[in-house]
């Protein structure tokens, strides 16, 4: 069982979370060319090792999180709210 | 190498089983081959066999990073079926099933193919209508044995399911393919290896690819722990690790994610279940058959998150156990014997790729998602055809990497571009 340290709720079993997928994707603007959308929707680097991904704490605070995880060892390196503004507030910024 | 026959088995039985020769050679890799297949799984071995037998190419090597049958070839639930309804898939899997039907004779190796029926349980009128639509499509397009069963017929064939009126998911009928069934996974690997070896194919175990030498638009050589090997043509056929090899070749991104699929086998029981039974309702998924040794072989969903680790997680064990209890409550006190996880290349539409690549002499076979086992004969057949003739046959014309750019998704489940949902 992977334990994910939720920034609001503390460490919880991964079964409380829903997996969102590759967190490194930046979706293009709505009027971006089709190729840009094709790449964002369909293509993946599919890293074996450390990757950024999104998880939602559905059975807790329901926050979307960015989780840095090793896809081979399942070690978790960092967890932050996916919303950058919220992440900043939690870190004690503005 | 000794050819298997009734006479041979009898003779060896009378002379102490001492006359059997080894099943395939253990050759030193040569410095050059006409074709190198990377990946000694079922698909890679089948490709090498059909390259040699169908296309007369003999200077072939199969490079396997560990031992034959150690990867996904030995990490599956051995189910063979062709009940696919989408154009492209249905012809492909039906061709595969036809090859399965004659595989033991073709390879002179008993792959223990057993056409014991594949029974998908239905729990609502809507599900029955949906299955009837798909199965009618199959009957009209070359899969003659697709049937919809009512409850009486199902009860007669499979008496041990939970038919109670207070069942969590009361059963209303079933979608059945009677020519579907199971085969012995190890025997398929060994059979293809032995038959390919007999035709001169070098099967090189413990020989993973550690580097790829490229010049302009071609691969010129593969680096391995057993030296540098050059090849005219190269085929990638490495379930679970395609992206790593793709990156090694400097080729960027693929419509693939590596996910993990668990499976289970119980202690051996007396004959209990004579078919493959599949249950899927909402978020619950379960399939089960009984091996010839008596073990109940079963599984459920993917682990829901990306992973390269060949080990599973406990929430899925619980999910599968719950589903088992709702479908076959008689399994409640049966002990689990083993439990394993394989890494599968999940694609963006749940269908596979057998295609050329941006490099002239590199060919790709990947994206078998949840169910590559049943596909292995046709996969090898058509991958060999592609490599030998350098053009996709109509059978695999749409299984290329560019299909999403053309707006085509061959999406059997209708789940959309989310790999973890194509289970």
Keywords:
heterodimer, A: 94 residues, alpha+beta, two-stranded antiparallel sheet, 6 strands, B: 423 residues, alpha/beta, eight-stranded mixed β-sheet, 10 helices, 18 strands, globular, flavoprotein (chain B), FAD (chain B), oxidoreductase (chain B), Rhodanese-like_dom (chain B), Sarcosine oxidase subunit beta (chain B)
Provide structural commentary.
The complex is a heterodimer of chains A (94) and B (423). Chain A is α+β, with helices and mostly antiparallel strands and 94 residues long. In chain A, 17% of the residues lie in helices and 35% in strands. Chain A contains two helices and six strands, in the order E-E-E-H-E-E-E-H. Chain A has helices spanning 34-42, 84-90; strands at residues 3-6, 10-13, 18-22, 50-56, 64-70, 76-81. In chain A, the strands form two sheets. A four-stranded antiparallel sheet of chain A has the order 3-4-5-6. In chain A, a hairpin with a 3-residue loop joins strand 1 and strand 2 (10-13). The longest helix of chain A is centred in the middle third of the chain and has 9 residues, at 34-42. The radius of gyration of chain A is 15 Å and the shape is globular. The termini of chain A are far apart. The relative contact order of chain A is 0.23. The mean pLDDT of chain A is 94. By secondary structure, chain B is α/β, with parallel strands linked by helices. The mean pLDDT of chain B is 95. Chain B has helices at residues 6-14, 42-55, 89-101, 103-107, 125-140, 151-157, 185-198, 242-248, 314-327, 376-389; strands at 32-38, 60-63, 79-80, 118-122, 146-149, 173-177, 181-182, 202-204, 211-215, 218-224, 227-236, 256-268, 276-281, 284-290, 295-302, 336-347, 353-356, 362-366. In chain B, helix 3 (89-101) packs across helix 10. In chain B, 27% of the residues lie in helices and 26% in strands. In chain B, strands 1, 2, 8, 9, 10, 11, 17 and 18 form an eight-stranded mixed sheet that branches. The longest helix of chain B is centred in the N-terminal third of the chain and has 16 residues, at 125-140. Chain A binds chain B through residues 1-2, 13-15, 18-19, 21-22, 35, 38-39, 41-48, 51, 53, 55, 71-74, and chain B through 241, 243-244, 247, 252-258, 304-309, 313-315, 348, 404-405, 417-418, 420.
């Amino acid at each position: 069982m992977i334990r994910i340290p939720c920034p609001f709720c503390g460490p919880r079993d991964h079964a409380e979370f829903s997996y969102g997928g590759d967190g490194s994707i930046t979706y293009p603007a709505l009027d971006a060319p089709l190729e840009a959308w094709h790449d964002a929707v369909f293509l993946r680097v599919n890293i074996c090792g450390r990757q950024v991904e999104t998880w939602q704490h559905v059975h807790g605070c329901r926050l979307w999180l960015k989780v840095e995880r090793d896809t081979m060892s399942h070690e978790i390196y960092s967890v932050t709210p996916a919303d950058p503004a919220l992440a900043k507030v939690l870190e004690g910024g503005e | 190498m000794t050819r298997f026959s009734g006479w041979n088995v009898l003779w060896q039985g009378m002379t102490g089983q001492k006359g059997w020769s080894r099943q395939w050679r253990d050759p030193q890799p040569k410095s050059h081959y006409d074709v190198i297949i990377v990946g000694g799984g079922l698909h890679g071995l089948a490709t090498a066999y059909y390259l040699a037998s169908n296309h007369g190419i003999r200077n072939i090597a199969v490079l396997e990073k560990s031992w034959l049958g150690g990867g996904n070839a030995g990490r599956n639930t051995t189910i063979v079926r062709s009940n696919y309804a989408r154009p492209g898939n249905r012809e492909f899997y039906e061709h595969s099933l036809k090859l399965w039907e004659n595989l033991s004779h073709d390879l002179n190796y008993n792959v223990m193919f057993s056409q014991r029926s594949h029974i998908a349980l239905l729990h609502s009128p809507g599900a029955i209508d949906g299955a009837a639509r798909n199965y009618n499509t199959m009957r009209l397009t070359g899969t003659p044995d697709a049937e919809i069963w009512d409850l009486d017929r199902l009860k007669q064939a499979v008496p041990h399911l939970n038919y109670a009126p207070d069942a969590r998911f009361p059963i209303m009928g079933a979608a059945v393919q009677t020519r579907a069934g199971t085969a012995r996974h190890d025997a398929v690997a060994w059979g293809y290896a032995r038959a390919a070896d007999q035709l001169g194919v070098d099967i090189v175990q413990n020989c993973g690819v550690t580097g790829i030498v490229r010049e302009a638009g071609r691969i010129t050589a593969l680096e391995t722990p057993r030296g540098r090997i050059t090849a005219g043509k190269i085929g990638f056929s490495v379930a679970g690790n395609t992206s790593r090899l793709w990156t090694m070749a400097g080729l960027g991104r693929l419509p693939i994610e590596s996910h993990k699929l668990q499976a289970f086998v119980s202690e051996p029981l007396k004959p209990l279940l004579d078919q493959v039974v599949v249950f899927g309702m909402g978020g619950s998924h379960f399939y089960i058959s009984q091996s010839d040794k008596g073990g109940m072989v079963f599984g459920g969903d993917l682990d829901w998150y990306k992973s390269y680790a060949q080990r599973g997680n406990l929430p899925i064990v619980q999910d599968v156990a719950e589903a088992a209890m709702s479908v076959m409550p008689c399994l409640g006190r049966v002990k689990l014997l083993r439990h394993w996880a394989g890494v599968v290349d999940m694609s963006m539409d749940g269908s596979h790729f057998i295609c050329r690549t941006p490099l002239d002499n590199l060919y790709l076979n990947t994206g078998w998602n949840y169910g590559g086992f049943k596909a292995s004969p046709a996969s090898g057949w058509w991958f060999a055809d592609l490599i030998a003739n350098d053009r996709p046959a109509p059978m695999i014309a749409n299984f290329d990497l560019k299909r999403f750019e053309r707006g085509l998704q061959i999406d059997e489940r209708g789940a959309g571009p989310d790999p973890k949902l194509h289970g």
